[in-house]
């Protein structure tokens, strides 16, 4: 396939404008997504403790089901961006449609498994007899929205690949507002209880998916792209997603091991760990926004055959990652005395978490490099290396983390181990970026 001529090399200011234009809306969309769960929690929380406990169990299962399929967004972004860089918009949209068809197939499979097994899944969490019926009700209704959620992931990847992060932001905001209104109306106005909350979220998710599909269909008609399912294209999308699935599962395993270790340290430590983990996830949104910009920008440069532009963009985004990491670290240091009282008044929890927060703050520049290079390599379609690097990181992290309860050091030692994990990721990603082996040009990798 003939490639589009390479663009002139962009200067630092142009890189900065591109990064900001893509990262800021992406950050807004990322922050809006967890607000769905927060809204459900706030509304259901007033129904009673058993209902809230049931929501907690069901939400954990749902979020795990969706998070393992996040590759639908990542792989689609990279593939579409390459086609955009090559100047082939019809093929870019066609590539994205393959991701949407894959999302529908995976969503249908999840529904088929989750509906009949919902009671058994809830029981695995040791859910109390009082909370279990609410968890089963919420899970069985909410799982109907998973196909829509996966379509949203794939369609978000299409728009990001098309260098559009504003539309996902607008859809996320509208979805959040709609979700809140529907939940309040169905839970209290219609008297449906926790089932109303589940139905409100499903309706909002289906509405978001419908908006995304309308945008994609309009683009397909404009550029004459086929909308029919293509077995070869769907299979290629799945194959591209497998390494990213391995990467995601390895990362989830690391977080689960860290939580299990914290639980062995004692109640104060596990409580402090959960607080710190919530902050860590919030900080990750800011850094992940730059990574999303990296996926879109790098994919476009490589699709255009502009290796120099890709290298320059990578360097500039790493600088952004370090700078944002430093700012976030300083903010954590300055606000930590005020941050902890928002979550607990227990002095033991505060004593455990306060020094660990210093470790988190100091590690933010490292996290900035990790997130950016992760996004760069995803944008390059370098999934197999990302999978191998994360499995290696898991292998190094696990024995060190399991030694924390034996050697002592409490929560501070555990988060020092988490920093070791991020440092390991940084080294593997940095070595790959320096090697240049991720630079493969063309409309497809």
From TrEMBL:
A Pfam family the protein falls into: MatE
Record field: transmembrane: 20-37, 57-80, 100-118, 138-162, 169-191, 197-217, 244-263, 275-299, 320-340, 352-373, 385-407, 413-431
Its membrane topology: Multi-pass membrane protein
InterPro entries in the cross-refs: DinF-like, MATE_fam, MdtK-like
First-listed, main subcellular location of the protein, grouped into a coarse class: membrane
Compartment(s): Cell membrane
Family according to the record: Belongs to the multi antimicrobial extrusion (MATE) (TC 2.A.66.1) family.
PANTHER family referenced in this protein's UniProt entry, alphabetically: PROTEIN DETOXIFICATION 44, CHLOROPLASTIC (PTHR42893:SF46), PROTEIN DETOXIFICATION 44, CHLOROPLASTIC-RELATED (PTHR42893)
Protein name: MATE family efflux transporter
